[in-house]
Amino acid sequence: MLAGFINGVSTSVTFRAVSRASGTAVSGSGATSGSVLPYGKPLSPRVQGHDAPKGSQDVKFTWETPVANGKDMDRIEWRHIATTYPWDDPNPDRAGNLAPRAGSKTIKTSWDNSTTLEFRVCDVTNICSDGVIVHGRTGSAPGG
């Protein structure tokens, strides 16, 4: 078994024969294998929470396009953390899937409130990154 390869970096191996009887290398340059693209668990997404602008109840969350790990990324998953909804909660106000590219999501919440979401990236084999928890806040109600 070989280890220590970097996700998403094409790698090949060169084999050379060595005589067991004499311990000397056989002449020639060896044979190079085909290249492979190693992969592991996707990297966690880069996500930011943005406080609502003054007079607004909209908290915005933005993320960058996920970093490739040698496999295609399938989706970005998100969920509310307040009551730890499951990743596959059927209520679209509590959890959901997003396209695996840069984007944003806005959550309307009450005044003077914090909203906490968790995001993770999943690849085409359904292996998911560790989650990233981010927060955004609304201010006081106007005139209040």
Spatial strand sequence of the major β-sheet: 6-5-8-9
Please give the CATH class of the domain at 47-137: Mainly Beta
The global form is: rod-shaped
Number of helices: 0
Radius of gyration, in angstroms, nearest whole number = 24 Å
Sheet bearing the most strands, described?
Answer: 4 strands, antiparallel
Structural class: mainly beta
**Which stretches are poorly predicted, pLDDT < 50 over at least 5 residues?**
none
Jot down its keywords:
144 residues, four-stranded antiparallel β-sheet, mainly beta, three-stranded antiparallel β-sheet, single chain, 9 strands, Immunoglobulin-like
Report on this model:
The protein is an all-beta fold. The protein has a domain at 47-137: Immunoglobulin-like (Sandwich), CATH 2.60.40. It is built from no helices and nine strands. Strands 6-5-8-9 form a four-stranded antiparallel sheet, with no helix packed on it.
Topology:
Blueprint: E1 14-15, E2 31-32, E3 47-50, E4 58-63, E5 73-80, E6 95-98, E7 103-108, E8 114-123, E9 132-137
